[in-house]
Amino acid sequence: CRFYSSNYQYVLAFVFAIEEINRNPYLLPNISLGFDLYNALHSEKRTLESCLMWLSGLGKVIPNYSCVREGKSVAVTVGTTWAISAQMGTLLELYKYPQLTYGSFDPILSDRSQFPSIYQMAPRNTALALGMVRLMLHFGWTWVGLAISEDMKGIQFLWDLTGEMDKNGICVAFVEMIPITERAYFSLAWQYHYRIRDSSANVVVIYGDSDSLLGLSFSTWNILMTGKVWITTSQWDFVFSDSYSLLDSFHGTLTFSQSHKEIPGFKQFLQGVNPAKYPQDFYLTDCGKLESCPPNVSLESLPLHTFHMTTSDGSYYVYNAVHAVAQTLHELLFHLSEMQSPGHGEKPVVHPWQLHSILKRVQFNNSAGDQIILDQQATPVEEYDILNFWNFPDGLGLQVRVGHFVPLAPRDQDFSIHEELIDWAFEFKETPRSLCSKNCGPGFRQSPQEGKAACCFECTPCPEREISNDTDMKQCIKCLDDQYPNSKRDHCLPKVVTFLAYEDPVGMVLACAALSLSILTAVVLGVFVKHRDTPIVKANNRTLSYILLLSLILCFLCPLFFIGQPNTATCILQQMTFGVLFTVAVSTVLAKTITVVLAFKSTMPGMKMRQWLLSGAPNSIIPLCSLVQVTFGVVWMVIAPPFIDTDAHSEPTLLIMVCNKGSVIMFYIFLGYLGSLAMGSFTLAFLARSLPDTFNEAKFLTFSMLVFCSVWIAFLPVYNSTKGKFMVAVEVFSILASSAGLLVCIFAPKCYFILLKSERNILPGSRSKAKSR
């Protein structure tokens, strides 16, 4: 292993496992394991030299030669970087040595065609990216920077992490790929530093080995990078720094460490390590590296940045690697002893290549109770502990477990974190925020900015009839039809139910007008009944006048069905009474017009119209025309009758109860038929307006139909342009106006003559006789 203070624990884990196996009477009985330690420097040339020195057995670089006759090694544990493992793996593959790596899992080394003799003890980090994204989502960090080693493992992690971030709406503030070659790194080293330091992102993910160039990059920045929240993995051993001043930069760091139990007895073993116990130990005896080093110094007395007593992931993998080899040797030796003939006293000879068939399928439970499987395809999905780094004076730091991530657990149970245990970087007085744009509060929505990431947006107020009741909503929510947004547009309020009521000013005016006009029409009818024998009443068929006046009384009362709270009965009666009563009124006007024409034609020589007039034929027009309109009404009621409906769009805060026409087509057929009768009456009356008759009311009929048609022609555009209860008011007003037009234009002149000009209410012959007398 490359020498760092962190790697010293790997050596001790290796020694601890060897001693534990040698004390176990049930594992490799009567056999003691030995070992050799070599320092693999982070240089291809130096790494290969170390391998050749080990293979030769002479401590010299002698290719293809070995002077070791007994006690040859049968397996190699390699770490910590993939580069060292790959370099050694290529050489050791020539000798078929099993190589068990204790660094983080690397997809390159899992290629069995290229590295068939390498076994990775670390599980795949398949859920690491998901776990980090769950952490970001928990704290609402949507603007995150990435600093990643530019190797195959880093590129794969970048692909996985950015994919998960995109799925969950988290944006990448920057990506700094730290080169793996020294030449490329040193040409841009400080540029990486400035870009990360000056970024607006307060959260940065670091992925890579601490003894890689990425680690060198951060180790040279000392305390210049404070004010950031670092998210990293346990392979980033920043705690083991040569200077505890670096730890200020990483105070508050959140580390994902693969969950595993503590190895029983390992901590006590570390506490007992001292120069007296291991005189050959190069670490503790080298007191020149320490400020003060007592003769009997122990690891427990060293500051955290120099050594800490918690089992690291690498040490855990080293321990399992040694036990995996021991388990394999135990099974292999048992198999070889069974194959030997009885009485054969020599010990079986073990060759490195013989271990592969067993290592590929070895499974066992270590002393901590964890199941160890070297087959990566059968390895269960890993779980993660989330650690928070606390830095105290003089390097007395502490890694505190603050959370846990279980990928296979249900969504609401897979992630847990205790925020009260987290100690953030010194610059943050509360939970840090990492956003490109400020949160859009309730009542606003995110509006993307062209050319920028999705997390960089402007806050736009919700449009009319829409709300947002949460922060950072991408779309506002429409209120239900019976609701409307409050002034802040952060929640919906129920609309007030309303209709054209008698209490409303408009409804009160229309109702009073309807009653007043109906009473006025009844008075006119009383006048006509009282003066029924006068010439002006008898001249134009007083029966038709009575029918017209009665129909107008009912027409004036018809709007009362439109005012007040609608129900099914009133909705049906509105249209039926309106259509039928107005048909009776207009057909009566048509009958009166025909009566005028027939009365004039019957006085002309040679015309045989008198019998039509005497037979009462014009009166039959009323039932015939009304029957047609009743037929239309019955069809309407059968196909799609009117029903109670609500208008939620006319008034923003009101829910208006109205009568839905049911079938708009039938409604306009009703009006169209009524309009055709009115146009027929108007045309006939217009042609008869100049007939010479003393009591000719053709002119009045013409003018009444002109008013009637004008009202309903104006009604159509006004009705279609209004909504809610004002539509009802327009329809009621049109009924009253058209009815009043008939009443005034036809009967006002006659009442004038009856009541004020009674001397003119006699026949011409009677007037001359009265004068002679």
TrEMBL record:
Membrane topology term: Multi-pass membrane protein
Name this protein carries in UniProt: G-protein coupled receptors family 3 profile domain-containing protein
Domain G-protein coupled receptors family 3 profile: 506-770
Entry keyword set: Cell membrane, G-protein coupled receptor, Glycoprotein, Membrane, Receptor, Signal, Transducer, Transmembrane, Transmembrane helix
InterPro entries the record matches: ANF_lig-bd_rcpt, GPCR_3, GPCR_3_9-Cys_dom, GPCR_3_9-Cys_sf, GPCR_3_C, GPCR_3_Ca_sens_rcpt-rel, GPCR_3_vmron_rcpt_2, Peripla_BP_I
Keyword Transport tagged: no
Similarity-based family: Belongs to the G-protein coupled receptor 3 family.
Domain of life of the source: Eukaryota
Listed transmembrane segments: 508-531, 543-564, 576-600, 621-644, 664-688, 700-720, 726-748
Primary localization: membrane
Intracellular or extracellular location(s): Cell membrane
